[in-house]
């Protein structure tokens, strides 16, 4: 069986700046991989590489397909960082979730009954049904994250890329989001979750990868979260880090 | 004579004149089409692009007059051409996009000015720059109607994709829907729309028509469908008010239309129940 996510020797340069240096990564289907690293460590660049948004050396395969083929089939769901979303945009939660279905629609993107049902189910699973007609910015931090996860659920994507899903989310919503992600894993989805919130990693992730332009460590969360390894990447002790983010 | 009859008179009297009817037709159609597009312009943040395209069409308009071609033809070639040029220079130099836009559109506009001063002209520079909606020919009207139809049909067909592009181009890309293609479509529609509006308000004021109605509607609603409706309503009301006011007061028609739009924006800016400056401060949503 082919890996869900397979990156081989990915190297990305922005001008003279080396953003990713020979990064390789393999995630088997139905697993959750945590992507750890400081700001500027290349987490977002790795996502862009997986989405085919930056020119990269090396290869990307998603479920055995090329990136372009996987996108065409709607296999890759993407949950963006909060900073990348225009929260004042005049769309409702329901409209955003419906956008997950666009790849399955005709050129006019006119929703059919099956699309409306899929959106309804996704809203229900993320417990946003009552908020579906709100403007997207009129949600709390955790609800906003769930809205974009609902979009990926409606898309029925096999692979989910989540960029900092716990940033700007309070403790209780954090638990709700984690629970939701674990459910998705249970249904066979493969998740790549970037976070600098190390407290969530052992609970959520089957494996982890510590990035600092190149791969500093990979393995089980226990292996990656060893103090010596983290010292090198973050320059702080993990317990200290955990207290800062909670 | 009471106020109501006076008001009815104010509206009805100019309509006896055919040139007023024609001006109204062109202004309302152009206003409505621009208003539709202005919603996406506002959300994507392309106001400056509207300004650029409108100025850059000048050489095309002059050439059309020189060779007796429909004005829309030359304007379209130069509008789309300058958009492509802006894109190309932006990609291949380190200069930031707003500076590239500034360089390209002023160069094009200057070229038009130079050309016009060499053309033994029946072309009146004033009419091109400031519009001449009270003197539109049959051919002008047809060009406006056909191009307006083209834009509206394209928008009707692709409006959901355009909104997807404006809201989340990365998601579009991740679904295999090309943001690049949608951007090109939107820029193409902008070029055609600018040409439509030239007839009504002239080159200088076109940018208002593709920005102000959308910006006004954005202050009044959080729903995109309503934003479209409000934007069109604002533009149509401004077109009617502008044309009639310019008839009664004997002032610039294009100027009156744009002033009416600006007045609508000012009202929304101050008094919008949801986003106005003077709204009752409600607690921000959690």
UniProtKB/TrEMBL annotation, chain A:
CDD domains the UniProt entry points to: ABC_Metallic_Cations
Entries under InterPro entries matching the protein: AAA+_ATPase, ABC_transporter-like_ATP-bd, ABC_transporter-like_CS, Metal_Ion_Import_ABC, P-loop_NTPase
GO MF assignments: ATP binding; ATP hydrolysis activity
Residues in ABC transporter domain copies: 5-238
Alphabetic keyword roster: ATP-binding, Nucleotide-binding, Transport
One Pfam family in the UniProt entry: ABC_tran
SMART domains linked to this entry: AAA
PANTHER family in alphabetical order: IRON TRANSPORT SYSTEM ATP-BINDING PROTEIN HI_0361-RELATED, METAL TRANSPORT SYSTEM ATP-BINDING PROTEIN TM_0124-RELATED
Family of the protein in this entry: Belongs to the ABC transporter superfamily.
Protein name: Manganese transport system ATP-binding protein
Species annotation: Nocardiopsis algeriensis
UniProtKB/TrEMBL annotation, chain B:
Protein name per Swiss-Prot or TrEMBL: Manganese transport system permease protein
SUPFAM superfamilies, sorted: ABC transporter involved in vitamin B12 uptake, BtuC (SSF81345)
Pfam families: ABC-3
Cellular component annotations (GO), alphabetically ordered: ATP-binding cassette (ABC) transporter complex
Entry's family note: Belongs to the ABC-3 integral membrane protein family.
InterPro entries recorded: ABC_BtuC-like, ABC_TroCD
Transmembrane segments: 23-43, 63-87, 99-121, 141-157, 227-247, 253-271
Subcellular location, record wording: Cell membrane; Membrane
An annotated GO BP: response to zinc ion
Topology within the bilayer: Multi-pass membrane protein
